[in-house]
Structure formats: structure tokens, C-alpha cells
Amino acid sequence: MIDTEAIKRIHAARLQWLHNSGMAVLLLLLICLVFIAPAFISHGEVWRVVTDVIVVLVLLSGVVAVLDHRRLAATLAVLSVLVIVERSVEGLVPAGMLPLVRNVSTLGGFLVLAVAVGINVFASGHAVGDRVFGAIVLYLLIGLIWAVIYSAISLHVPNAFAGSVGVNAGLSDWVYFSFVTLTTVGYGDITPVAQGARALATLEAFIGQLYPAIIIARLVSLQSRAGQS
């Protein structure tokens, strides 16, 4: 006789192992994309290839990390395939549309991944350690999402930003500006000038201030509920 309960437990344990492994790899890749790669690789073809590879790996590891959300995982898998295809056939895309296609595909993948990770962070039924781990990943994803948006704005709105950033700024410049804004450090070497850019920078800084408070409040409320039960 087949023990269905045992099969369910094994299946749940495998999903949890995949989730934990995927989240660990995802965090390492995000750290590489945000902190390590920009420190050792300058702008150019090598940087473009490295970031393309890391972005694709981030999305693929995200698929594994959010397998418990099947629809989101399937959507993320489709977007990952689109990103891979887009970066593989760039020669077939008109040069004027290439940056737009890259930004849209990358932004779509990061947004879906952020939603899936956010569900794990804020929904009930997850361990505190898993929530904290996911909160770090979500914070890095928020910064990357805004970096991609800033990159798109700079390409399509002339002189939207002033300062040390030039017309040939790469993703690393916008990652730097995004996290400086998110953490409200504000060195002032890059300044949003266009109205839309200012609004987005203000919104990111607002999120950066609220995010830790929301995470802490959620963890405290969960611990209170656990104590009462």
C-alpha cells in the first residue's frame, strides 16, 4: 500500500531543499552583480558579457527558489528563456531598439522574481530565518529594478541626469546610483534632473526608509502570534 502522507512529506522536503538552495545561489549571484563585478570589471564588452551571464543565472536560480509558487515560477521561466534568446540574437535586433529590448526583458524578470520573493517574506507559513534571508534578496532586487529603470530613462530622456554619469553610462553606474538612493546616502555625484527621474528617485528613497521598518514590524507580529498560540 502506498503511503501518500510519506510521499507528500518527501515532496515537501525536496521543494524546501530546492527553495533554500535556489535562494542561496540567488543571493550569491546578486552580491556578485551589485558589489563584486562592478569593482573588478570596467565598462566594455567584457562587462556586458559578464552582466548578461549573471542576469540570466539570477533569473534561472530564481525559478528554482520560487518553485512553490508554480505560476510565478512558470512566468519567470518563460521570461528567462526570452532573456536568453534576446541576448543570443542581438545581431537580429535593430540597433536603436536593442537597449529598450534588453531593459524591458530584464526588468520584467526582476519584477516577477521580486513578487515571488516578496510573497515568501510577507505571507504566513514561513520560518523567520527564511523570511530574513528572503528580505535581503528582495532588498537587492529592489535596487536592481530601479537601476534598470534609471538606465532606461537615461537612454530615452536626454539629460535626465546630471553629474559624473555620461551618455555611455553602463548598468554598474545605475546600480551604484540606485543603491546610494535606496540607502539615502546621496553623495550628489549623480543628480536626477528630469521630473520623472526625480519622482522615481524620491520614491526609491521613500521605499528605502520604510522597508526595514515594515520587515521588522512583520517579524515582530509573527513572533507575537506564535507566542499567543
Strand order of the largest sheet: 1-2
Q: How is the CATH topology named?
A: Helix Hairpins
Could you tell me how far the N terminus lies from the C terminus, measured between alpha carbons in angstroms? 36 Å
In helices, the fraction of residues equals over 70%
Provide an overview of this structure:
With 229 residues, this protein is mainly alpha-helical. The chain has one domain (15-228): Helix Hairpins (Orthogonal Bundle), CATH 1.10.287.70. The protein contains 7 helices and 2 strands; from the N terminus they run αααααβαβα. A two-stranded antiparallel ribbon has the order 1-2. Helix 5 packs across helix 6 (171-182). The chain is globular. The two termini are 36 Å apart. The mean pLDDT is 84.
Short note summarizing the structure:
This protein is mainly alpha-helical. The protein has helices at residues 4-40, 45-65, 70-88, 98-122, 128-156, 171-182, 195-228, and strands at residues 161-163, 190-192.
Spell out the key features of this protein.
229 residues; mainly alpha; Helix Hairpins; 2 strands; 77% helix; globular
Topology:
Blueprint: H1 4-40, H2 45-65, H3 70-88, H4 98-122, H5 128-156, E1 161-163, H6 171-182, E2 190-192, H7 195-228
Antiparallel strand pairs: 1-2
Helix pairs in contact: 1-2, 1-5, 2-3, 2-4, 3-4, 4-5, 5-6, 5-7
